[in-house]
Amino acid sequence: MDIVIEAIVCVLLLIGSLFTLIGAIGLARLPDFFMRLHGPTKSTTLGVGGVVLASVVHFTSLREFTSLHEILIPAFLFLTAPISAHMLAKAGIQQRVSLWEATRGRPALPGDPDAAPHATPAAPRAREPRD
Amino acid sequence: MLAIVIPISFALLGVAFLLTLVRLVRGPSLPDRIVALDTLNVNAIALIVVYGIQLRSTLFFEVALLIAVMGFIGTVALTKYLQRGDIIELN
After folding, report:
1. Do B46 and A47 touch (CB under 8 A)?
2. Does A101 reside within a domain?
């Protein structure tokens, strides 16, 4: 195998693994649920993208044809990670997870007295009679 | 060079697994544990892809794709159950 291609594979593998590790560190160390949501949904997904890119380069140089069917994995992950993060954030708001004291802005819940003023929903307008 | 980097990559991914397991055990609320399980899925995908590079086999990509699909469905089902108390609502 060409030494340049091997170096590219090695660098991509190290970058991907480091991003995955950084996402896991963020998940383990950050003080708040809504902060902890950032690590896995962004950094870990990007790390898997780097590892799969390394595998694309490796198998393209190993075989004679371009190996592209593993691109499906990060494509699917990049599509589904924001959806699952959105649903998890909504579940966290509804479960009223405990917030760090420095976290600004409280999620607006009906009947929650200490909600931030900018987060309170607008007062419902009076329903206009139809015609 | 690849023979040195692949064990390093395995080690980094293993440490990521351990940190995620710490959050899975310690997690004070249920959404934290669901995030940890989702991260375990994604870490498993990365580990399987690196293992496929080591074995020089493209057979493992279908496994990784299946884990990705099933992990997403599991996460959506768990959050849906947490929000609504039911997964499939008929009416």
Report:
1. yes
2. no
Is residue A109 included in any domain, yes or no?
no
Full set of structural domains in chain B with CATH: 2-84 (1.10.287)
ipTM of the complex in this document: 0.91
| Amino acid at the residue B56 | R
Q: Residue B41: in which H helix or E strand, if any?
A: helix B30-55
How close does chain B come to A84, measured CA to CA in Å?
6
| pLDDT one-digit tens code per residue, A85-117 | 999 999 998 888 888 888 777 766 655 555 554
Report the predicted TM-score, pTM, of the whole model to 2 decimal places.
Answer: 0.83
| Chain A residue numbers touching B73 (CB-CB < 8 A) | none
A120 in a structural domain: no
Q: Could you tell me if residue A59 is inside a domain? A: yes
Q: What is the CA radius of gyration of chain A?
A: 22
Our count of domains for chain A comes to 1
- Can you give the residue range of the structural domain that contains A42? 3-95
